[in-house]
Structures are given as C-alpha cells and as structure tokens.
Design goal:
The complex is a heterodimer of chains A (437) and B (249).
Chain A lengths: L2 H14 L8 H14 L15 H4 L15 H4 L10 E6 L2 E2 L12 E4 H6 L4 H7 L8 H9 L4 E5 L9 E7 L5 E4 L2 E6 L4 E10 L4 E12 L4 E8 L5 E11 L4 E8 L4 E10 L5 E10 L4 E10 L5 E10 L4 E10 L7 E10 L5 E10 L5 E9 L3 H8 L5 H17 L5 H15 L8
Parallel strand pairs in A: 1-5, 4-7, 5-8, 6-9, 7-9, 8-10, 9-11, 10-12, 11-13, 12-14, 13-15, 14-16, 15-17, 16-18, 17-19, 18-20
Antiparallel strand pairs in A: 1-2, 3-4
Chain B lengths: L1 E10 L2 E11 L4 E5 L6 H9 L5 E9 L2 E2 L5 H7 L1 E4 L6 E5 H15 L7 H14 L4 H4 L2 E2 L5 H15 L3 E5 L7 H14 L5 E6 L12 E6 L2 E6 L2 H9 L2 H7 L1
The chains are: A alpha/beta (437), B alpha/beta (249).
Chain lengths: 437, 249
C-alpha cells in the first residue's frame, strides 16, 4: 500500500477517536480531502521541481507512535541549550515529555497544542488563529488532517519573555520507520518579545519523516526571533512548513541552519499585513554525502513601507544538492517596499549541485527590490593570500567558509546559541581554526 | 639566503620569466624595477608559491633548500613573506583574528603551542603602534572597504607580526600618500636586521628614498638586464627604461 493510501485509510480510524464536536473536526475533514485529491507533491509541480519525495515516501511508516518512551536527560543533553535557562516543550516520538519539558502558564502560555485543541477555554483562540494562515496545499493539509500535538505559545501584550523557548521533537527509533506531524501555534502579542529555537532530532538511524506545520502570529509591534536547527541523522527527513503573519510595526526574523538530514524542505512563508514591518530570512546550509536541502521562501508584501531581507548561504560537498527558491511578491498597494534577497553558494566538490531560482513579482511602482545569486568555487586568489600567511589549505578553506557563513551568524542574538552553531559549523567543516566569528 | 637560477615561468602558454638570476643575502635590501608587464609581480608570485604560475625551468633556493615544490604555507613557515600588490578582501574575518590564526598556524607547523593570548595582545599592540594603526582598524574585516593606503599598511602590519626572513614588497608604494609611505618605510626599516632581507618591487624610485636598497635590478621582458647600486634607481627615474632597452640591442 502506498503511503498516501495508508494515510487516507488511517485517517478514518484516527477520526473515530476524535470528538465530533471539536471545533477543528471540519478543518481536519477538509484537509484530508485535499490531501486525498492532490497526494504528495511531485517534481512535475513547479514548486517541487528540484526536490523528489520518492526516496522517503516509499517506506512503511508507523503513523502513530506507541509513544511513552522515556529517554535519559544525559543522552539528549547536548541538543538543549543546557548552559542557559530556557523554557522547553519536548516531544518524544510525537508524544509530550513532561519529564524533559519546562512549560509555563505563569504570565505567558508555553504549553501543549493538544490541550488547546481540547479545552473549552481556548475555543476563541482556535477560532481566531488555528489553520488561518497555514497553506491549503497538499502537504500542509496532510499535517492539518493528522495534527493533534505540538507547542502552543501565547505571549501576552507587552511581555518580554525572559528566556528562550526551545521546541524539540525527538524520535527514538523505537519504530523501524516513523512519520510525525507536529503542529505549533505561536501568538506573539502586541509589543511582546520572544526568542524561539526549534529542533527535530532523531536519536537512531531508523527512518523518520516529519511533516511539521508552525503558524505564527505577530501582533502590532511584536518582535520575534526564531531559530531552526536542522542537523539531523542520515535517515531523517523533514518538511517544515512555517507561516508567519505580521501586523504593523512588527519585526520577525527566522534563521535556518541546515546542517544534516536526508531530505529537508523548508517552506517558509511571511505575510506582512501592516505597515512598517520588517522580515528577515537567513540561512546557512552545509551539506555533504547525498544530503538535500530545499529552501522555498515566500515574502508577501501586502502593506506599504515595509522591508524584507533574505540572506542564504550554502556550502555543498560530495554529492549533496541544494535548492533556493525565493519568491517575493509586492502587491499593488504595497508602495515604498525595500526587499533584498541574497543567495550565495559554494560548491566544494564537482558532484555537488545547487539550483537557485529567485522570483520577484512586483506590482507596485515605487519599490526597491534587489536579488543576487552566486554559485561558485573557492576564490583562488583569496586562498593563496591566506596560505601565503602560513595558514594551510584546509584551514584556509575553513576560514573562507566561516567568513562566508558569518553574515548569517552575526545576527544570532543568543550568544550561547551562536557559540553552539559556530561549533557545529566547525564540526561540519572538519577544522577548528580556533576563533569565534 | 635566496638564490634564483635561470628561472623560467609563465601562465599556461605565455612565458613571462625567461631566465631570472638573483642572489639575495641576509641583511640586504634589493630593489627590482622595471616597466609594466616585465614580470616583476610574477617573480614575487613564483617565489611565494602562487600555483597559477608554472615554473618550466630553473630553481629557487631559500636557506639552502629548493622551495619550488613547497606549498605557499610551507614557504611562509620557512620565513618567506609577500606583501601583496592587491591584498584580497575577506569579509567576515577581522584583521586581528586573521593574524592570530596566521601566527598560531605557523607556530603549529614548527611544533610550538599557540601563542598565549596576553603575549599576542602585546605583540599586536606594539606592531600596531609601530605602523600607527588605530585599534578600531584591527577589528574590521580584513581589507574590506580599506583604502589603498590602509591595505598596504595592513600588509606591513602582518609582516611585522610574522617577522619573516625574506619580505617581498610588491608595489607597496602604490596607493600610498607621502605620509603613509613614510610610516610604512619607517616600519620596514625598523624591522630590518642583519638576519633578514627585503626585496622591493616597484615602478618608481620614490619608496627607495625611504628604504635605501643595497642593489637595484632592472627587469625587462622576463630577465634581469642590469644591476647596480642605488644610484641606478635615480637614473631610471630620470631617463626611463628605453635607454636600457637600447643598450640591449
């Protein structure tokens, strides 16, 4: 049975367990219909031209974990920002782990989506926000149909959250192949300020397929820093669908560090619905072997006087492949927009491939938009210059790679996180030249 | 210290150096002058190990060792330094971090531990003072957005930090105003000792007023066609290169 058929037939059983009166019953039903009609995206679709899911959807996944698996903190400590205090929402094989988590209802909500979906007191929240900005495409709909757990974060107006929030999804390898569909809902209230780190981490080499959806609402003057750390095991694949709705005077920044995993697809969508909003999308991708990462970004400028900045850097070794598909839409009424997009790639080996496709669709006439894209090798002159100072070839390359990634790293605002990512990058490059960038 | 014998080198099919002979001893300053395209920069690139140039004949011996097979970093470890005519911009790496890495990698190659941070700081401070370099300058990205003069001063700063046995200054005077030229020349003179040597590659005699050479060589069409004392530089400044070319015919 194909994964699609398995999912569609499992939905019936899944739905039976759910409360028919749940406010999202209809949403789920519609979503599974959409998925049934469209199925998994194929390379025939323009948006999926360079990413094939064939290698991951041919497996027999368990689509609901048996759950209840305990893991020792020591075993996963390295995946947390353990040196500093943080809120934590942790899931093991899709099931909430109260042991590893540190949630809160004290002045802010850092908790579980499942309780929000089931409790009467959250009904208004669900009606106002749930599935409002998530796309209705097949892959997001698939998540919507099955979603029942994830992080729910609601920061009240004027609240500056005192420590970062970590959302971590572990998979244990308890199942030979596991499919997970986490769903996060994040509301950043007016003038509120929050930093969130998201990570999907497999703890074994068994196959994992995560299809994650995150909806984020930034109310007026809200400030959001969101960091995605994608450094998963060789058989772990991820489709990350993130939707950000910005009201006026908001500032939302997403940094995506794609350093591992089998197939990673990032659908990152921003929509600016109020004036004077600023969106930043940055990424560092360092791949090797046959890893594949596809960054599919969309910034929709609906309101005037806004800015967006995109800066994606990629380093590709061995036979790894990368895609950057960056779309910027400036609607007719969205005058005085500054939209910048930069995508630079270095191919370290001859077999590595990058497909870059910037798309600017501008309907307003008074805007400033730019995009630049490069795919190249190391600059030979720079290498010689560095080597002539006594720095070896490998270290010289590492230094250039550090420097290359630095424009993205320099805006990481949590020093501890920056240090970690710096170390991860050093580890990926295989050389530690002994300085922080 | 440095012996170059019958050196032929070029890029792909183009021959640039056509039999260069040169001997530089410890304690000496040599100036190599010549018109554009005569091969001056190629000579410095070949000595320092730029792989874009292919050596077809001849030898380069440094401290009694043939260095033509060595990588650029290995030559640097032995004490060869090239001050670039066009220093490369490396955004994202600060001047300080770059020179720290260079020093520690060189020490590592010699089997030494990293230089202690306090000692490094002291060294950086003293060399920056020598070249009248501002502290803020040191935290800027290497050569990025530097003026021509800043780039050259930064090259000499790196030279001062690395303390090479043989320094090749490739067109270090170009892009320098007279004040910067004096500072750079003063720096080079202070670093000069009986144990090291300097090769100055230049178009003009101007720098040689401040760094006085023991020998002046004229490089034309890939060969050193005339050598003399410092007075030769004045003669070249006054009369250009044509008279030498005529002498050759």
């Amino acid at each position: 049975m194909s994964l699609k058929s398995k999912l569609v037939s499992s939905y019936l059983a899944f739905d039976d367990h759910l409360d028919d009166n749940s406010p999202i019953h209809d949403i789920r039903k519609k979503a599974i219909d959409t998925f049934e009609e469209k199925g998994f995206p194929t390379k025939k679709e323009e948006d999926w031209k360079y990413t094939s899911l064939n290698a991951i959807i041919n497996k027999d996944y368990s689509i609901a974990s048996k759950g209840d698996k305990k893991i020792k903190y020591e075993k996963v400590r390295e995946y947390f920002l353990h040196d500093i205090d943080s809120y934590k929402v942790v899931f093991i094989d899709g099931v909430f782990s109260s042991f590893l988590s540190e949630t809160s209802h004290d002045g802010l909500d850092v908790c579980l989506l499942s309780s929000v979906l089931s409790k009467e007191k959250y009904k208004a929240i669900i009606e106002a926000y749930y599935n409002k900005i998530a796309s209705k495409d097949s892959i997001t709909s698939l998540n919507t149909a099955f979603a029942k757990e994830g992080a729910y974060i609601n920061i009240p107006n004027n609240k500056e959250v005192d420590k970062p929030i970590e959302i971590i999804n572990f998979s244990t390898g308890n199942e030979t192949a596991l499919m997970m569909q986490p769903r996060n809902l994040i509301i950043v209230g007016e003038n509120a300020h929050v930093q969130i780190i998201e990570r999907h981490q497999s703890l074994s080499n068994n196959a994992v397929f995560t299809n994650s959806v995150t909806e984020i609402f930034a109310e007026k003057r809200a400030y959001l820093d969101f960091y995605k750390i994608q450094n998963d095991k060789e058989n772990a694949s991820l489709i990350d669908n993130t939707f950000i709705h910005q009201e006026q005077d908001t500032n939302c920044n997403v940094h995506t560090f794609s350093l591992g995993g089998k197939i990673t697809r990032n659908n990152l969508n921003f929509s600016q619905n109020g004036e004077h909003s600023d969106s930043t999308l940055k990424g560092v991708t360092i791949l090797k072997d046959k890893q594949h990462v596809d960054h599919n970004t969309l910034v929709n400028h609906i309101s005037p006087n806004c800015e967006s900045h995109q800066d994606y850097k990629g380093l590709y070794a061995d036979s790894s492949t990368g895609v950057f598909n960056g779309r910027v839409i400036v609607e007719k009424q969205a005058q005085k927009i500054n939209a910048f997009q930069q995508n630079n790639n270095i191919l370290i080996d001859d077999n590595a491939t990058v497909n870059a496709k910037p798309q600017l669709e501008i309907f307003a006439d008074d805007v400033k938009c730019s995009h630049g894209c490069t795919i190249g090798q190391f600059d030979e002159d720079a290498l010689f210059y560095i080597r002539s100072r006594g720095i070896g070839l490998k270290e010289a390359q590492a230094l250039l790679m550090y420097a290359f990634a630095n424009t993205v790293l320099e805006t990481v605002k949590i020093p501890e996180l920056k240090r970690r990512i710096n170390n991860l990058i050093a580890e990926k490059i295989g050389v530690n030249i002994g300085f922080d960038i | 210290m440095l012996q170059i014998k019958n050196l032929h080198a070029g890029v792909e099919d183009k021959k640039i150096l056509k039999g260069v002979n040169l001997e530089v001893k410890a304690g000496e300053i040599h100036a190599i002058m010549g018109p554009n395209g005569s091969g001056k920069s190629t000579l410095s690139a070949v000595i320092s190990g730029n792989e874009n140039f292919e050596v077809s004949q001849g030898s380069v011996t440094f401290l009694n060792e043939d260095i033509l097979e060595l990588d650029p970093e290995e030559r640097a470890h032995k004490g060869v330094f090239l001050s670039f005519q066009y220093p490369v911009e490396i955004p994202g790496v600060s001047v300080t971090n770059f020179i720290k890495t260079a020093i520690n990698e060189t020490r590592k190659a010699k089997g030494l531990e990293d230089m202690p941070a306090s000692e490094m700081l002291k060294l950086i401070k003293s060399k920056a003072d020598l070249l009248e370099i501002d502290r803020k300058f040191l935290s800027r990205s290497l050569n990025e957005g530097f003026s021509g003069g800043e780039k050259k001063r930064n090259e000499i700063f790196q030279m001062a930090m690395l303390d090479p046995k043989l320094a090749i200054l490739d067109e270090t005077d170009s892009g320098l105003d007279i004040d910067a030229l004096k500072i750079v020349a003063n720096g080079v003179n202070k670093l000069k000792s009986k144990d090291n040597a300097v090769i100055i590659i230049t178009h003009y005699q101007r720098l040689l007023d401040y760094i006085v050479p023991d020998f002046v060589h004229v490089l034309i069409d890939g060969k050193i066609v005339k050598s003399g004392a410092k007075e030769l530089a004045y003669e070249l400044e006054e009369k250009g290169y044509d008279w030498i070319k005529e002498e050759l015919v």
